[in-house]
Amino acid sequence: MILKGKKGVIFGALDDMSIAWKVAERCAEEGAELVLTNAPVAFRMRGDSNIKTLGEKLNCPAIPADATRTEDLEKLVDEAQAHLGGQLDFVLHAIGMSINIRKKKAYTDLNYEFMKKSMDISAMSFHKLMQTLWNKDAMNDWGSIVALTYIGAQRVFPHYGEMADAKALLESFARSFGYHFGERNKVRVNTISQSPTPTTAGQGIKGFDDFLNYADTMSPIGNAPADA
Length: 228
Prior knowledge:
The protein starts with 6 loop residues before the first strand and ends in a 10-residue tail after the last helix. It has 7 helices and 6 strands, in the order βαβαβαβααβαβα. Helix 5 (112-135) runs parallel beside helix 6 (162-185). The model has no long low-confidence stretch (mean pLDDT 90). The protein is α/β, with parallel strands linked by helices. The longest helix has 24 residues, at 112-135. Strands 3-2-1-4-5-6 form a 6-stranded parallel β-sheet, with helices on both faces. It is globular, with a radius of gyration of 17 Å. Strand 5 (139-149), helix 6 (162-185) and strand 6 (188-193) form a beta-alpha-beta unit. The protein has one domain (7-218): Rossmann fold.
């Protein structure tokens, strides 16, 4: 078990179609001790596939936190360290949402108030998280911080809309904060772009099936599933 004794926090497990959900399951299988978190609204979801049921399955706490609010992040990090008994070895940021995409707004006709909220949720929350971890010295030396991104940050996918801009900003935060974390704590900060995955969020993007089919055709071994 390669993660035995390692302690981490995973953001963004919404349901069993979430990449974060699959990551949490694999981390637990490999011996990691976990704390799960998502926005408070995720804890009000009904049915058998929600963050509360995942917490029960993995025998770990699930703590509500709005990642756009520094107060929530500070409380979360304190509670996670208290539960896990010390500093963290890894953190996964798997958060992203575009109100303009949900409202089916074209990129040439964005609502800027929606855009600010999308940037706050999808990108600025990553900086807020890292700054909270930094200020609380919550990461073990040689730890790892990872955020999910997408190739749309660097290539044009017309229907990916403002999420392309949000992911580009997210990647910039990883580079910039990664320098400081690396210098002080030898902590690695990376972003990972997986092949298109039919998550709840992903399927809300117009033309998603085309993304999926194109990537599957271009990859020698096809698309990676969420649990790959």
